[in-house]
Structure formats: C-alpha cells, structure tokens
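Protein data sheet
==================
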Amino acid sequence: MKLKDNYKWSLVVPTSMGIRITPVAHGQPIHKSDTLFMQATSAESNVASVSAYLGLPCKILTTFVKGSPIAQFIKDNLHSRHLDFEGKEVEQGGPWGLRHQINIADSGFGSRGPRVWNDRAGEVGRTLNVNDFDLDRLFGSEGVQILHLSGLIGALSPETSRFCLELALAAKRYNTKISFDLNHRASFWEGREQELGGIFKEIASISDILIGNEEDFQLCLGIKGPEAGGKDIAAEIESFKGMILNVKQSFPNVTVFANTLREVVSVNEHLWGAILLAGDEWHVIEPRPITILDRIGGGDGFVGGLLYGILKGWEPEKWAQFGWATGALATTFITDYGQPADENQVWSIWKGNARVLR
C-alpha cells in the first residue's frame, strides 16, 4: 500500500474521550466494589496508542468540556501516551449540561462474564463538527498518511455521522488513506438503521482499509456471513473468507480487509485469530490460546498493530502478525489499551516467548 511521502502525521483519529472506571480488586464486580481505578479512554485513542508508543506521530481530533477537571485529566493522559490532540473547548452549560462519557467496567473472572455499563448522557463528543477543524491545514499543509475512523464515532449522533463522512471526503481529496473499523453497537443504531446504513456504506466505498468481525460486516453493511458467537470459530474460516469476498465485490475500492476471530473458552482464556485480505492475498492466523487479564480493548489493539505495520511499510503477512500480537498484548493490561515497550516485546508475544528478559 503506497502512503504519502510528505506528512506531519502518520495517523489521525477522531474520537470522543471519556473516563473508564474499574474495580481496584481486579476481576471483582462493580456492584460489590468500593474502590475504583480511573483511566482516560476511547476505542479510537486506544488504536492510535500502539503507533504513538512505538514512536510514530499521531494526532487525536476530539472536543473537551471547558474548565472540566476530567478534561484536564484526559489531556494529561494523552500527553503521557505521546498522543498529540486538538479539539474545541465547549462550555459545560451548567450542572445538567455537557460532560465526558463514563465507561463503567467489570472485567469478569472465570465463568462470570464481563459487564460494561456505558453512561453517555450529555456526552460532549456528540457535538463533534467538521467546522471546528482546519481540514485543509491538516490534510494539505501538514499531511496525514492514514485517517482512521470508527463506527462508534460514526454512530454516536447525527452530527458525528456527518463529521466522519466529511472527514473521509476531505482525506480522499488529499490522497490520505482511509481506515474504517465498522465497530457496530446495537444501542447506537436503534431507530437509525436506514440512516446509518447509508452513511456507513458511503464511508466504506471510499475507504482503503476495512476492518470488522462477522457481526460488523453483516449489521453495518448488510453482507451475509457466519452466525456470530460460534463455538468452533476455526471451522468457520472459509465462511469468513466468503463473507469478505462478498464485501470486496460490493466495495471494490477497498484494498485491505481485516477480520478478527475470537472464541471465548472462559473470561481468562480465549482463542484469538485473524484473517487479512491484502489485494488478492490471504493471510490467516488460526485461533491460538491467549491468557486474558481484561479482554476490553483487544480488538482496538489488533487494529493499532495492523495500522502500525502498514505505516512501517512491512509486508502484509507481518501486518496481521503484529496486529494479532498487539491485540493479545492489550488484554494483559488493566487499562483498555496496550502500551508496548518496543517492537521486540510485541514480536516475542507473536513467537510465544514469555521468558524473562534480563
């Protein structure tokens, strides 16, 4: 995949930042916990974190509640992740006005599955507007190699749906590659299926990289595929390939397709795999067992590693391998994003080398 040669930013990601709170006693349920750990979070910043920790210049496009201590907490966290950012400062509008989203998460343990409660009322990210950013400066004067979009932001509100589409159109004008992770969320789509289906298909039609799972491709784009939640996901690989080929036929401008594979044995043990189609070449990682500390963020970790491999100019086989390993890495952190120390740490995960490094 040929990327832009002259650029300031390797990766630009629009997002709605918020906070995530989890029990300090890891694995315990929220309703039985009285001490909680708080982190700054968003699925899209989680993707960008992989490249940022590994030294590539990345920028977050977002919006903040003016004067909010939570906004300051988020900004400080983004700095600590080596992520640049820009975003409008929006007045709170009083105690019942705008705020940053709150993600309340129980990681589960053993046979007790995770539970996530999203509290997004009054979310400031729902106001994201393309007019708040200088797109000619961003994509033209500065230059961006890849714009990464998430279906979570695309479906957050009618304003953010339009925001993502206009960002994609601007990126296309400046020959920036577009990555689109479909990321379907049923609660976001309820009552907006026809509207969002049209917008998602329009973004997908001008994308270069399309990412999802069996549910995402079916529910966002209407492409038939295997039944979700199968017990023997390895046996369904040929069906996944058929689904991706159907997506490729419907969206011929896309040159890279990626599909994660996950089979849950227990909360703490998953079979983790991936399928990548780059041009006409398949790269399949058969599901392999990984040990889970917190599963949330594994998919974002995969996308982050995949995009890092593309940005580094590697061969497609290594994109899939690195993405698999950064996804596995993310599930070993109490944060919902992986924090790779270096490439060698990631490749050691891929090779199954968990020996101590002294």
